[in-house]
Structures are given as structure tokens and as C-alpha cells.
Amino acid sequence: MIPNATLSAEEAPFYAPAVNEIALFENAYRNQLPVLLKGPTGCGKTRFVAHMAARLGRPLYTVACHDDLTAADLTGRYLLKGGETVWVDGPLTRAIREGAILYLDEVVEARKDVTVVLHPVTDDRRTLPIERTGELLTAPMEFMLVVSYNPGYQNVLKSLKPSTRQRFIAMEFGYPDPETEAAIVSAESGLPKDRCVPLVRVANALRDLKGQDLEEGASTRLIVYAATLIQSGLRPAEALEAALLQPLSDDPDIQSALARVAELALG
Ligand SMILES: Nc1ncnc2c1ncn2[C@@H]1O[C@H](COP(=O)(O)OP(=O)(O)OP(=O)(O)O)[C@@H](O)[C@H]1O
Q: Predicted ipTM?
């Protein structure tokens, strides 16, 4: 497991803040508090963590959680290497040893018995007992745990135990306001901002359909895709179709409703 290269503050990936999230995160880091980020898909949670890791000068380990993830996938396991059995740290253990930031994306996908392994390291003990090696690691000040999930996908089966949830301070993310979002899309795609404004307008019109016809609205990520395609020469109508309409639904009726909404939003 290799961390993202440790970046300096000057090399931090571009992140446009919405409110006070940068100060809040820095404060949590200084006070050794774990952080939970909630928000819809593609709204900037992962980018924010990458930006903060660079600002704080810490290595970043990212794990995309899924329901086959085991506690050993996080802590480590013995592996056979060249006829010898050697212990190999998992990302949680490495992040603790190195004072890194560990980011568990879509943490609700992990089974509850797996998230329990996080408990001793997310309260004031800040320890990780590793039974297999007999070690008891104490997390250094620089170690930080960040988890994220999308409340939109949440159902009764997939939620965090209160005893897990209540170990984190929580920050809510949403899609940026239209002005900021157009600036983000322009910065990410290279398309002039005035040409990003109508794309953001379409995305916001599509977002309004969330809950009626759509499970999720159009993400900032998808608007960036549309703008990137336009910037590289594709006709706007084709870019909209490929990046903002097709990814949202497979249902032909919903597809044509989305196309109508997009047309109206473009005016
Ligand atoms: N505030 C922001 N500043 C800069 N870029 C942003 C911002 N918000 C979104 N983006 C852009 O949107 C893309 C998607 O964001 P990101 O990958 O962080 O989403 P996410 O919330 O982690 O999504 P998921 O939950 O699906 O993993 C980024 O790669 C970036 O181009």
C-alpha cells in the first residue's frame, strides 16, 4: 500500500472552500479529533481531504470501503514471501506508524464488525492493539482518521453504529453555489467560466429532480466532465448528453425528461 505522494502546501490540489471547512478541519487535526464528511457523490469530499493532507504536510492513505473489507485489510496480515512468513501492515497500521491521514471512503459499506476496529484509535486512548503481532500502537499527534459517506445511499442495513458515529466530528458537504461551482468547473476543465455557467445551470435543474425521478442529482464531477469534453472540441449538445444526461439514468422516459429539463435550463 503506497500513500499518495506527500505534497507540500504549495502543491495542494485546488480546492474551493464553501464555508469554514478548512479552519474546522485544521482545528480537528490540532486537537486529534477524527472527522466524518457527509455529502452526495462528486461534491468535493475526496478533493478536500487531498487538499488538507497537503496543507498539513501529511501522507494520505485512502481506502474505498466495501462489504468484503475485513479488519485484517485495515490492520495487516502475515503473508508468505520467499518461503518466509512476514507481517505486512495494512493502511490503518501504516498510517498510525507514519503519522499519516487515513481516509476511509464510503465507510458505511464496511461491515459493522470491521468498523469496530477503529474504536480504540478514535477515542482518547488513540491506540491500536494488533493481536497477531502482540503490539499495542499509540497513534502520534499527526495521525488523523477521516471517513466519508453519502447519506443519500443510506438505508437501514447500511449505517454506522451510534458508538462508531459518535466518535467523529461531522462536516456536511453539498454542491457549491452556482458562482463557485462555475469557477471550480472552469479551473478543473480549462473551459472559460462564462461557458461553464450554463452547464452549472443545467446541473442545478437536474438536481431539482432528485427524489422525484432521480436517485442522485448531477455531481460537480459530471459538470467537470462535460466542460472537459467541450474544451477538447466536442459539441456542447454531445458533451451534455454523454456527461450530464446518460450517466444519471438508464430509463428512456427519465432520459427524455432530463433532456427536456436541460433544454429549458439552457433557454
Ligand atoms: N470545492 C471544490 N474545489 C475543487 N474541485 C472540486 C470541488 N468540489 C468538487 N470538485 C471537483 O469535483 C470532482 C469530484 O470531487 P470528489 O472526487 O472530491 O467527490 P467526492 O465527494 O469525494 O465523491 P464520492 O463520494 O463519489 O467519492 C473533483 O475531482 C474536482 O474536479
A: 0.98
